[in-house]
Protein backbone atom coordinates (compact mmCIF):
# COMPACT_ATOMS: atom_id res chain seq x y z
CA UNK A 1 0.00 0.00 0.00
CA UNK A 2 1.62 3.25 -1.09
CA UNK A 3 0.33 5.12 1.95
CA UNK A 4 2.11 2.87 4.45
CA UNK A 5 5.44 4.66 3.98
CA UNK A 6 4.69 8.39 3.79
CA UNK A 7 7.22 10.56 1.99
CA UNK A 8 7.77 13.64 4.08
CA UNK A 9 8.24 16.97 2.33
CA UNK A 10 11.55 17.75 4.04
CA UNK A 11 14.96 18.83 2.82
CA UNK A 12 18.10 17.03 3.96
CA UNK A 13 18.85 19.85 6.41
CA UNK A 14 15.42 19.37 7.98
CA UNK A 15 15.71 15.62 8.28
CA UNK A 16 16.76 15.59 11.93
CA UNK A 17 15.20 16.92 15.12
CA UNK A 18 16.60 17.81 18.55
CA UNK A 19 14.61 14.96 20.12
CA UNK A 20 15.63 12.27 17.55
CA UNK A 21 11.97 11.56 16.96
CA UNK A 22 10.73 9.21 14.26
CA UNK A 23 9.35 11.69 11.75
CA UNK A 24 7.01 9.01 10.35
CA UNK A 25 5.17 8.85 13.67
CA UNK A 26 4.38 12.54 13.92
CA UNK A 27 3.65 12.80 10.20
CA UNK A 28 1.20 9.90 10.46
CA UNK A 29 -0.37 11.46 13.55
CA UNK A 30 -0.88 14.70 11.63
CA UNK A 31 -2.38 12.76 8.76
CA UNK A 32 -4.77 11.01 11.15
CA UNK A 33 -5.71 14.36 12.66
CA UNK A 34 -6.42 15.87 9.24
CA UNK A 35 -8.58 12.99 7.94
CA UNK A 36 -12.08 14.42 7.32
CA UNK A 37 -14.80 12.93 9.52
CA UNK A 38 -12.45 10.89 11.69
CA UNK A 39 -13.33 11.65 15.30
CA UNK A 40 -11.27 11.23 18.45
CA UNK A 41 -12.86 7.94 19.50
CA UNK A 42 -12.31 6.36 16.09
CA UNK A 43 -8.67 7.48 16.17
CA UNK A 44 -8.11 5.89 19.58
CA UNK A 45 -9.90 2.70 18.56
CA UNK A 46 -7.66 2.32 15.52
CA UNK A 47 -4.52 2.97 17.55
CA UNK A 48 -5.44 0.47 20.27
CA UNK A 49 -6.49 -2.23 17.83
CA UNK A 50 -3.49 -1.79 15.53
CA UNK A 51 -0.90 -1.21 18.28
CA UNK A 52 0.91 1.75 16.73
CA UNK A 53 0.39 4.62 14.34
CA UNK A 54 2.37 3.07 11.41
CA UNK A 55 0.44 -0.19 11.86
CA UNK A 56 -2.83 1.58 11.06
CA UNK A 57 -1.79 2.08 7.45
CA UNK A 58 -0.39 -1.46 7.25
CA UNK A 59 -3.87 -2.94 7.73
CA UNK A 60 -5.76 -4.44 4.79
CA UNK A 61 -8.42 -2.12 3.45
CA UNK A 62 -11.16 -4.60 4.42
CA UNK A 63 -10.01 -4.44 8.05
CA UNK A 64 -10.29 -0.65 8.02
CA UNK A 65 -13.75 -0.90 6.49
CA UNK A 66 -14.84 -3.22 9.29
CA UNK A 67 -13.49 -0.81 11.89
CA UNK A 68 -14.62 2.49 10.39
CA UNK A 69 -17.03 1.88 7.57
CA UNK A 70 -16.16 2.31 3.90
CA UNK A 71 -16.39 6.15 3.64
CA UNK A 72 -14.00 6.73 6.55
CA UNK A 73 -11.68 3.94 5.44
CA UNK A 74 -11.40 5.56 2.00
CA UNK A 75 -10.77 8.95 3.61
CA UNK A 76 -8.04 7.44 5.77
CA UNK A 77 -6.26 6.02 2.73
CA UNK A 78 -6.33 9.35 0.88
CA UNK A 79 -3.64 11.90 1.69
CA UNK A 80 -5.32 15.08 3.03
CA UNK A 81 -4.49 17.92 0.61
CA UNK A 82 -3.06 20.09 3.38
CA UNK A 83 -0.94 17.30 4.90
CA UNK A 84 2.30 18.09 3.08
CA UNK A 85 2.09 21.78 3.98
CA UNK A 86 1.61 20.84 7.66
CA UNK A 87 4.62 18.53 7.50
CA UNK A 88 6.76 21.26 5.95
CA UNK A 89 5.77 23.77 8.66
CA UNK A 90 6.39 21.21 11.40
CA UNK A 91 9.83 20.28 10.02
CA UNK A 92 10.79 23.95 9.81
CA UNK A 93 9.64 24.56 13.38
CA UNK A 94 11.50 21.52 14.73
CA UNK A 95 14.84 22.68 13.31
CA UNK A 96 14.30 26.29 14.38
CA UNK A 97 14.66 25.54 18.10
CA UNK A 98 16.65 28.17 19.99
CA UNK A 99 19.74 27.16 21.93
CA UNK A 100 18.72 25.70 25.28
CA UNK A 101 15.02 25.39 24.33
CA UNK A 102 13.88 22.11 22.78
CA UNK A 103 11.15 21.68 20.16
CA UNK A 104 9.42 18.30 19.92
CA UNK A 105 6.35 16.55 18.57
CA UNK A 106 4.93 13.81 20.76
CA UNK A 107 2.50 11.15 19.55
CA UNK A 108 0.65 8.40 21.39
CA UNK A 109 3.53 6.08 20.46
CA UNK A 110 6.14 8.36 22.02
CA UNK A 111 7.37 7.68 25.57
CA UNK A 112 7.48 11.43 26.25
CA UNK A 113 3.73 11.80 25.69
CA UNK A 114 2.28 12.84 29.10
CA UNK A 115 0.81 9.78 30.81
CA UNK A 116 -1.99 11.83 32.35
CA UNK A 117 -3.46 12.53 28.92
CA UNK A 118 -3.54 8.99 27.56
CA UNK A 119 -6.66 7.93 29.53
CA UNK A 120 -8.69 10.75 27.92
CA UNK A 121 -11.13 9.40 25.33
CA UNK A 122 -10.20 12.34 23.10
CA UNK A 123 -6.48 12.54 23.85
CA UNK A 124 -4.89 14.35 20.90
CA UNK A 125 -2.87 12.04 18.61
CA UNK A 126 -0.14 14.66 18.43
CA UNK A 127 1.21 17.19 20.93
CA UNK A 128 3.63 19.98 20.13
CA UNK A 129 6.07 20.80 22.94
CA UNK A 130 8.57 23.60 23.54
CA UNK A 131 10.82 24.25 26.52
CA UNK A 132 12.93 22.32 29.01
CA UNK A 133 11.54 18.98 27.94
CA UNK A 134 14.28 17.04 29.71
CA UNK A 135 12.94 18.23 33.07
CA UNK A 136 10.37 15.76 34.46
CA UNK A 137 6.86 17.06 35.03
CA UNK A 138 6.07 15.24 38.26
CA UNK A 139 2.81 15.87 40.12
CA UNK A 140 0.93 18.95 38.98
CA UNK A 141 -1.99 21.16 39.97
CA UNK A 142 -3.91 23.44 37.64
CA UNK A 143 -4.45 27.03 38.77
CA UNK A 144 -7.11 28.83 36.73
CA UNK A 145 -9.49 31.76 36.95
CA UNK A 146 -10.73 34.99 35.47
CA UNK A 147 -9.01 36.87 32.67
CA UNK A 148 -10.03 40.09 34.43
CA UNK A 149 -9.38 39.36 38.11
CA UNK A 150 -9.24 41.71 41.03
CA UNK A 151 -5.80 42.79 42.22
CA UNK A 152 -6.30 40.53 45.21
CA UNK A 153 -7.21 37.57 43.03
CA UNK A 154 -4.09 38.03 40.92
CA UNK A 155 -1.94 38.21 44.05
CA UNK A 156 -3.59 35.11 45.51
CA UNK A 157 -2.92 33.15 42.31
CA UNK A 158 0.73 34.15 42.35
CA UNK A 159 1.17 33.28 46.02
CA UNK A 160 -0.56 29.89 45.82
CA UNK A 161 1.36 28.96 42.67
CA UNK A 162 4.64 29.91 44.37
CA UNK A 163 3.89 27.68 47.34
CA UNK A 164 2.70 24.79 45.19
CA UNK A 165 5.88 24.88 43.12
CA UNK A 166 8.04 25.27 46.24
CA UNK A 167 6.39 22.10 47.54
CA UNK A 168 7.28 20.11 44.44
CA UNK A 169 4.13 20.50 42.34
CA UNK A 170 4.19 21.87 38.83
CA UNK A 171 1.59 24.55 38.10
CA UNK A 172 -0.48 24.04 34.95
CA UNK A 173 -2.47 26.86 33.36
CA UNK A 174 -3.48 28.35 30.02
CA UNK A 175 -1.20 31.42 29.73
CA UNK A 176 -4.26 33.68 29.39
CA UNK A 177 -4.42 37.17 30.84
CA UNK A 178 -5.21 37.51 34.54
CA UNK A 179 -5.14 34.51 36.88
CA UNK A 180 -3.35 32.20 34.41
CA UNK A 181 -0.46 34.62 33.93
CA UNK A 182 -0.15 35.27 37.68
CA UNK A 183 -0.04 31.51 38.36
CA UNK A 184 2.75 30.94 35.84
CA UNK A 185 4.69 33.89 37.28
CA UNK A 186 4.38 32.60 40.84
CA UNK A 187 5.63 29.16 39.84
CA UNK A 188 8.55 30.62 37.91
CA UNK A 189 9.57 32.61 40.98
CA UNK A 190 9.76 29.37 42.98
CA UNK A 191 11.66 27.35 40.35
CA UNK A 192 14.60 25.52 41.90
CA UNK A 193 15.94 24.05 38.66
CA UNK A 194 14.94 20.44 39.36
CA UNK A 195 11.47 19.55 38.08
CA UNK A 196 9.37 21.39 35.53
CA UNK A 197 7.86 24.30 37.50
CA UNK A 198 5.01 25.24 35.18
CA UNK A 199 3.23 24.09 32.03
CA UNK A 200 1.35 26.44 29.72
CA UNK A 201 -1.27 24.74 27.55
CA UNK A 202 -2.05 27.14 24.72
CA UNK A 203 -4.67 27.45 22.00
CA UNK A 204 -2.41 28.31 19.05
CA UNK A 205 0.42 26.70 17.16
CA UNK A 206 3.67 26.97 19.09
CA UNK A 207 5.14 29.26 16.46
CA UNK A 208 2.78 31.95 17.75
CA UNK A 209 1.98 33.59 21.09
CA UNK A 210 -1.47 34.62 22.24
CA UNK A 211 -2.18 37.04 23.76
CA UNK A 212 0.58 39.10 22.17
CA UNK A 213 1.36 40.79 25.48
CA UNK A 214 2.65 37.45 26.74
CA UNK A 215 5.66 37.05 24.44
CA UNK A 216 7.97 37.63 27.39
CA UNK A 217 6.05 35.24 29.63
CA UNK A 218 5.97 32.54 26.94
CA UNK A 219 9.73 32.83 26.53
CA UNK A 220 10.34 32.65 30.27
CA UNK A 221 8.15 29.56 30.57
CA UNK A 222 10.06 27.92 27.70
CA UNK A 223 13.35 28.73 29.46
CA UNK A 224 12.21 26.98 32.66
CA UNK A 225 9.17 24.79 31.97
CA UNK A 226 7.00 23.48 29.14
CA UNK A 227 4.65 25.05 26.60
CA UNK A 228 2.24 22.55 25.01
CA UNK A 229 -0.37 22.67 22.27
CA UNK A 230 -2.44 20.18 20.32
CA UNK A 231 -2.89 22.75 17.54
CA UNK A 232 -0.62 22.23 14.51
CA UNK A 233 2.16 24.70 13.76
CA UNK A 234 0.71 27.77 12.08
CA UNK A 235 -2.68 27.54 13.84
CA UNK A 236 -4.24 30.90 14.66
CA UNK A 237 -5.94 31.74 18.01
CA UNK A 238 -9.42 30.64 16.93
CA UNK A 239 -12.17 30.84 19.59
CA UNK A 240 -12.96 27.11 19.58
CA UNK A 241 -9.32 26.20 20.35
CA UNK A 242 -9.44 27.59 23.88
CA UNK A 243 -12.24 25.46 25.38
CA UNK A 244 -10.51 22.39 23.90
CA UNK A 245 -7.34 22.99 25.90
CA UNK A 246 -9.29 22.83 29.19
CA UNK A 247 -9.42 19.04 29.06
CA UNK A 248 -5.64 18.95 28.65
CA UNK A 249 -5.09 21.29 31.59
CA UNK A 250 -7.28 19.03 33.74
CA UNK A 251 -5.70 15.85 32.35
CA UNK A 252 -2.16 16.93 33.18
CA UNK A 253 -3.08 17.78 36.78
CA UNK A 254 -3.95 16.01 40.01
CA UNK A 255 -6.55 18.68 40.66
CA UNK A 256 -7.70 22.20 39.86
CA UNK A 257 -7.59 25.34 42.01
CA UNK A 258 -10.06 28.02 40.90
CA UNK A 259 -9.02 31.42 42.25
CA UNK A 260 -11.69 33.78 40.87
CA UNK A 261 -14.36 32.99 38.29
CA UNK A 262 -17.71 34.28 37.08
CA UNK A 263 -20.56 31.83 36.66
CA UNK A 264 -19.96 31.51 32.91
CA UNK A 265 -16.19 31.23 33.22
CA UNK A 266 -14.22 28.65 31.24
CA UNK A 267 -12.47 27.88 34.53
CA UNK A 268 -15.63 26.12 35.69
CA UNK A 269 -15.44 23.89 32.61
CA UNK A 270 -11.89 22.95 33.58
CA UNK A 271 -13.07 22.21 37.12
CA UNK A 272 -15.94 20.05 35.87
CA UNK A 273 -13.60 18.13 33.59
CA UNK A 274 -11.33 17.49 36.59
CA UNK A 275 -14.31 16.20 38.57
CA UNK A 276 -15.30 13.95 35.67
CA UNK A 277 -11.75 12.56 35.72
CA UNK A 278 -12.06 11.84 39.47
CA UNK A 279 -9.67 14.61 40.51
CA UNK A 280 -9.70 17.17 43.31
CA UNK A 281 -11.25 20.61 42.86
CA UNK A 282 -10.36 23.52 45.15
CA UNK A 283 -11.92 26.98 45.24
CA UNK A 284 -11.07 30.21 47.03
CA UNK A 285 -14.17 31.95 48.43
CA UNK A 286 -14.74 35.67 48.00
CA UNK A 287 -17.14 38.49 48.66
CA UNK A 288 -20.84 37.75 48.18
CA UNK A 289 -21.01 41.08 46.33
CA UNK A 290 -18.42 40.17 43.71
CA UNK A 291 -19.39 38.56 40.39
CA UNK A 292 -15.92 36.97 40.33
CA UNK A 293 -16.76 35.01 43.50
CA UNK A 294 -19.91 33.40 42.15
CA UNK A 295 -18.16 30.73 40.13
CA UNK A 296 -16.07 29.66 43.13
CA UNK A 297 -19.12 29.69 45.38
CA UNK A 298 -21.01 27.52 42.90
CA UNK A 299 -18.14 25.01 42.97
CA UNK A 300 -18.15 25.03 46.77
CA UNK A 301 -21.87 24.24 46.80
CA UNK A 302 -21.12 21.30 44.51
CA UNK A 303 -18.52 19.89 46.87
CA UNK A 304 -15.24 21.59 45.97
CA UNK A 305 -12.88 22.08 48.89
CA UNK A 306 -12.78 25.58 50.35
CA UNK A 307 -9.23 26.95 50.33
CA UNK A 308 -7.92 29.74 52.54
CA UNK A 309 -4.23 28.79 52.64
CA UNK A 310 -1.76 26.36 51.11
CA UNK A 311 -2.27 23.88 53.94
CA UNK A 312 -5.86 23.34 52.78
CA UNK A 313 -4.45 21.95 49.53
CA UNK A 314 -1.62 20.06 51.22
CA UNK A 315 -4.16 18.06 53.24
CA UNK A 316 -5.43 16.51 50.01
CA UNK A 317 -2.25 16.66 47.89
CA UNK A 318 0.77 16.49 50.23
CA UNK A 319 3.84 18.47 49.13
CA UNK A 320 6.50 16.45 47.36
CA UNK A 321 9.36 18.36 48.98
CA UNK A 322 9.89 19.97 52.37
CA UNK A 323 9.26 23.68 52.20
CA UNK A 324 8.15 26.65 54.24
CA UNK A 325 4.91 28.13 52.98
CA UNK A 326 5.01 31.83 52.26
CA UNK A 327 2.28 33.74 54.12
CA UNK A 328 -0.35 35.71 52.23
CA UNK A 329 -0.03 38.83 54.37
CA UNK A 330 2.72 41.37 55.01
CA UNK A 331 3.61 43.59 57.91
CA UNK A 332 1.56 46.78 58.19
CA UNK A 333 2.54 49.42 55.60
CA UNK A 334 3.97 52.60 57.10
CA UNK A 335 1.02 54.71 55.94
CA UNK A 336 -1.32 52.76 58.21
CA UNK A 337 0.44 54.12 61.28
CA UNK A 338 -1.33 57.40 60.52
CA UNK A 339 -4.61 57.82 62.43
CA UNK A 340 -6.56 59.16 59.46
CA UNK A 341 -5.19 56.47 57.16
CA UNK A 342 -6.39 53.88 59.65
CA UNK A 343 -9.87 55.40 59.42
CA UNK A 344 -9.86 55.07 55.62
CA UNK A 345 -8.47 51.53 55.90
CA UNK A 346 -11.30 50.55 58.22
CA UNK A 347 -13.80 52.23 55.91
CA UNK A 348 -12.57 50.08 53.02
CA UNK A 349 -13.48 46.80 54.71
CA UNK A 350 -13.03 43.64 52.64
CA UNK A 351 -15.20 44.68 49.69
CA UNK A 352 -14.32 47.23 47.02
CA UNK A 353 -15.80 50.67 47.83
CA UNK A 354 -16.52 53.88 45.95
CA UNK A 355 -14.90 57.14 47.02
CA UNK A 356 -18.12 58.67 48.33
CA UNK A 357 -18.65 55.67 50.62
CA UNK A 358 -15.14 56.05 52.03
CA UNK A 359 -15.65 59.77 52.63
CA UNK A 360 -18.90 59.09 54.46
CA UNK A 361 -17.51 56.23 56.57
CA UNK A 362 -14.22 57.92 57.50
CA UNK A 363 -15.80 61.35 58.10
CA UNK A 364 -12.82 62.99 56.36
CA UNK A 365 -12.74 65.58 53.54
CA UNK A 366 -12.68 64.25 49.97
CA UNK A 367 -9.26 65.75 49.22
CA UNK A 368 -7.72 64.14 52.30
CA UNK A 369 -9.25 60.73 51.54
CA UNK A 370 -7.93 60.91 47.98
CA UNK A 371 -4.44 61.84 49.21
CA UNK A 372 -4.42 58.95 51.68
CA UNK A 373 -5.67 56.50 49.06
CA UNK A 374 -2.87 57.58 46.73
CA UNK A 375 -0.28 56.93 49.45
CA UNK A 376 -1.85 53.53 50.12
CA UNK A 377 -1.63 52.70 46.43
CA UNK A 378 2.01 53.77 46.40
CA UNK A 379 2.74 51.42 49.31
CA UNK A 380 0.85 48.54 47.68
CA UNK A 381 -2.01 48.07 50.12
CA UNK A 382 -4.85 49.57 48.03
CA UNK A 383 -5.75 49.17 44.36
CA UNK A 384 -8.30 50.73 42.02
CA UNK A 385 -10.59 48.17 40.41
CA UNK A 386 -11.76 48.19 36.80
CA UNK A 387 -15.06 49.66 38.03
CA UNK A 388 -13.25 52.66 39.50
CA UNK A 389 -13.64 51.84 43.19
CA UNK A 390 -11.01 51.05 45.81
CA UNK A 391 -10.02 47.67 47.18
CA UNK A 392 -7.93 46.73 50.18
CA UNK A 393 -5.08 44.35 49.30
CA UNK A 394 -3.59 41.59 51.39
CA UNK A 395 -0.27 41.12 49.68
CA UNK A 396 2.00 38.10 49.97
CA UNK A 397 5.55 38.34 51.23
CA UNK A 398 6.82 36.48 48.17
CA UNK A 399 9.60 38.52 46.52
What would you note in describing this structure?
The chain has 16 helices and 11 strands. With 399 residues, it is of the alpha/beta class. The protein has 3 domains: 2-96, no CATH class; 140-314, Rossmann fold, CATH 3.40.50; 334-392, Winged helix-like DNA-binding domain superfamily/Winged helix DNA-binding domain (Arc Repressor Mutant, subunit A). Helix 7 (151-166) runs parallel beside helix 8. 43% of the residues are buried. Mean pLDDT is 87; it is low at 1-23.
Uncertain spans: 1-23
Helix content: 40-55%
**Which CATH architecture of the largest domain is right?**
3-Layer(aba) Sandwich
- List how many beta strands DSSP finds: 11
Q: So what's the overall shape?
A: elongated
- Rounded Rg: 25 Å
Annotated CATH topology of the largest domain: Rossmann fold
Q: Determine and state the CATH class of the largest domain.
A: Alpha Beta
Number of domain units: 3
User: Largest sheet, if any?
Assistant: 9 strands, mixed
Structural class: alpha/beta
Our measurement of the CA-to-CA distance between the termini, rounded to an integer number of angstroms, reads 61 Å
> Please, what is the average pLDDT?
87
User: How are the strands ordered across the major sheet?
Assistant: 1-2-6-5-4-3-7-8-9
Strand content: 5-15%
Amino acid sequence: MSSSQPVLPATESQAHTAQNLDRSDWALALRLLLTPGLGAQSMRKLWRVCGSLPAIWAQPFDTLVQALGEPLAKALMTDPPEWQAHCQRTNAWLVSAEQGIAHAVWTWDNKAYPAGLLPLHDAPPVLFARGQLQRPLGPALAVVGSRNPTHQGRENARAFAYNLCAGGHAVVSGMAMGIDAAAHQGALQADRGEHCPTVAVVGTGLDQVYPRQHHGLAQEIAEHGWVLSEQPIGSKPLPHHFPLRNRLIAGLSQGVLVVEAALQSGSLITAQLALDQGKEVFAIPGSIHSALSRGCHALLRQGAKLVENIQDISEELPPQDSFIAKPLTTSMPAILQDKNAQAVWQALGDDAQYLDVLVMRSDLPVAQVLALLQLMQDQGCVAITAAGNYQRLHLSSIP
